[in-house]
Structures are given as C-alpha cells and as structure tokens.
Amino acid sequence: DQQVKQNSPSLSVQEGRISILNCDYTNSMFDYFLWYKKYPAEGPTFLISISSIKDKNEDGRFTVFLNKSAKHLSLHIVPSQPGDSAVYFCAASRNSGNTPLVFGKGTRLSVIA
Amino acid sequence: GAGVSQSPSNKVTEKGKDVELRCDPISGHTALYWYRQSLGQGLEFLIYFQGNSAPDKSGLPSDRFSAERTGGSVSTLTIQRTQQEDSAVYLCASSLASVGRPQHFGDGTRLSIL
Prior knowledge:
heterodimer, A: mainly beta, 6-stranded mixed beta sheet, 0% helix, B: 4-stranded antiparallel beta sheet
C-alpha cells in the first residue's frame, strides 16, 4: 500500500521552461511534505518543504503547492536548467516532521539544453 | 565536513556474512534515521533514534537487522547472516528534533551481497 505516489517515472523539459513534478498521498495524517533531489551515487538533497497549514511555499526557482482536499502536491521549477536534471523524490511525514519520512518512488527529470 | 557522514561508501560481501554500516550525523542533531533504497524503489524506512527515547524499530525487515546509537551521536546498522535481497543502498539521515526541520542525508553505503 503506497501512501505516497509519484505517477510519472520520468519527465523531459526544455531548458528555460517550467518543470512540474506531481505527488499524491493517501494518509490524511501527513502534515509535513518535502521534496528531495538526488544525483547518482549521492544522498538525497533537501530542496523545499511545506507544512499542511500552508498551500504554497517558494524558494528561488522552486515552488511547492499543496492541495489538501485533493491530497496532492506539486513542485514547480522555473526556469528549468540542465543542472536540475536528477531524480526528485516527494516525501511526507506526520507530527510536523518528527517522524520517519514516507517516500514516493521518484521522478527522473531531464532538462534538455 | 558539516554533513552526515557514512562509511564505508561501498561494501561487497558474501552471503551469510555479517556487515556493519556506520553513520556520523550532523553535530547537534538529536534525531537519526536509517533508510534503504533497493533497485528501482523509493526510500524505505528502517529505524529511528530520537534522543534518549527507545528507538522506533518498526521498519526493520527481519531480526537479522539491528542498530544502535552510542552517546547520542554515531550509529551503527548491523545486518547478520546477509542475504542477496539485502543488497541496496543504505542511507542515514539526521535532523533537529523541532517542528518543520528537514532530514539531511548522507551519501549512503552501497551494499552488494554475492
């Protein structure tokens, strides 16, 4: 039973355009959501997070949107750059982040120059 | 460095042997987590340490897996009598035990069981 789902295994985007990565969850107890970026042979790097009391959080080129009623979140990257090419993981937790994370299986983003 | 440090970075061993994986968390982080990523899968939670509380072992896949955290800092994950299905990347993360603090990951140990 996958509680966090990333239904797109891969995504290709032209440099300079917007990348939109999607994530759905099933557990209504989740109240803290995160996006991580992972390069090969490296650990996941924290990108951005959002608490369930918000519907949007922005950090530079990265914006995360949360739709609690739909149990859906998305990560927008604008403008996309070739260095953004990596696997992106969506993660969720309860208790405002003080519990183990539940991860999706990841989406491989390729930004084409 | 200031990040989470894991050793060894790679480990190849024969089926049936025991292995120990080490994690040095970020200084001052009281919460420490172990996850693993098998081929083509997302990260799977294994065990969680928070301060002096009893660890949350609910993610350990079998009693061959155990972990300890000495002095509230360094942690060791031990796998006894390794099996081929234990082959994975084992990742350690640490965080401040405060509201809304993200977990920061090491680069992992790639474990291969022959």
